[in-house]
Each structure stands twice: as structure tokens, then as C-alpha cells.
TrEMBL record:
Keywords: Acyltransferase, Cytoplasm, Transferase. It is found in: Cytoplasm. The lineage of its organism: Bacteria, Bacillati, Actinomycetota, Actinomycetes, Pseudonocardiales. This is [Ribosomal protein bS18]-alanine N-acetyltransferase. Its EC number is 2.3.1.266. Residues 1-149 form the N-acetyltransferase domain.
Amino acid sequence: MRLAPLEYEELPRVAELERQLFAGDDPWSESMLRAELDHGNHYVGAHVDDSLVGYAGLAVVGTRRDAEASVHTIGVDPAWQRHGVGRALLGALLAVADEFRAPVYLEVRTDNAAAIGLYRAHGFTTIGLRRGYYQPSGADAFTMARPARVGEEAQ
């Protein structure tokens, strides 16, 4: 598996995966994803051979002294789930946040035990509950956070 910055020409595949993975909610469209790249957010793709099998995005706001980061999305092709793709993608996002010494926030469906376990394994804790966060399903989300990593912690 190879991780690389997400390219504009990969957005149709990302939008296809979004529709597949998040069909019961509001999947991101190709134009929404394009706007994410246009705004300079950090997006990475996971590739096996020539196929995009996963993607992840992170926004960082502020300066290196007062930055905050937010995981916008992580998606993995169902055929590649449980093969370490999501873990690698999250690691790549966290490395960017660590460069900024930024705490990281995210929302995750309360019924997504696999993702919650992954986030906890990477130092996230639950800090809140957002009822009806995902639409149109009305599914609840946990807000999770990981403190900023500095010095040797960030390595």
C-alpha cells in the first residue's frame, strides 16, 4: 500500500466510495471534495497497485502556535477494510497535526465500534455527544479529541 496526497483526478473515485460507505447519510459529492482540496486541506489517498482503496482528510486552522485540527473524513473501500488502511490513513493525518502541534477533533457515529476503537488506540477520548448529527439518518455522533503532541510525543 502506498499513501500519497490526494489528486483532483481521484475525486470521482472518492465520491463513489462516499456514496457506497455513507449511503444512509449525506455523502460528500465530488464538488464538495474539490472545495476541500481548493481550500488547502490535507487529503491523502491509499493506493494498492493503481487503485485508490481509501482516503482521508484533515483541516488545520490557526498558526503553529495555536493550531487546531479536525478530521473531516476517513473512508476505506469495504474490500480493504480490516487490512490496516484506515490505521495508515489516520496516522498520516495525525502526523500533519503533530507538525502543527495541534489538538485533533473528530465526530464518529456512536454505532461505529471499529472506528471508535481505532481512534481510542491513537489517543482519542470521547468529549461529547451530538444527537442527530448525521443526516438524514439522524444517527448520533461522539465528538472525540486527541491532545496536541509536542516534542518526542509527536514522533
